[in-house]
Amino acid sequence: MRALVVGWIAVPALMFAQGSGLDLSKAKLRNPAALTERAPDVFKARFDTSKGPLVIEVHRDWAPIGADRFYNLVRNGYYDDTRFFRVIDGFMAQIGINGTPSVQQLWRSATIKDDPVKQSNKRGFVSFANAGPDSRSTQFFISFIDNSKYDRLGFAPFGQVLSGMENVDRLYSGYGDGAPNGTGPVQQKIQTEGNAYLVKEFPKLDYVKKATVEK
After folding, report:
1. Which of 10, 42, 73, 181 is buried most deeply by CB count within 10 Å?
2. Does residue 195 lie in a domain region?
3. pTM for the full model?
4. 3 in a domain, yes or no?
5. What is the pLDDT at residue 79?
């Protein structure tokens, strides 16, 4: 069942020197190991999406390692201009592959340890996707329904949708899952081609315009 949530393959992080073509606006993301600030005990992350605003309230005591990772990603613009590439009716909406391949490559192997599962993957709860033990990185999903059956597989919720769940429900789901289970994007191609691939082949995907930590 775990393959229903993720399907990426870990690769070594690439090193980028000056002149490599890395988008300067993403420069702060080029060193994952440096983005380890401790998150507040409770904070709100606002996602301005193509369907409207979404606010996620994060509780660090639910999953401290995951909360810290999410906090650093949001604060440093990782999710800006990022697509909800896997939206499955009656299941969940998944996001978290950066649209700039050179940035994404740096984060693919920047995994974090697992947190114990203290909350349940109910409707509106938010968890990082994983591909096995200690493999969480940047992808997260929002449950459309009660997905508590995934609790035993180690998916530890770190937050829940505080407002805007109606906008999550409206995310475009026409492509379904990725191949071979649906007609959605191939994750490997998102990793290597980024938004250029998604905009060309899957233009109806909804996306995050900007994500910020609310003051």
Report:
1. 73
2. yes
3. 0.88
4. no
5. 98
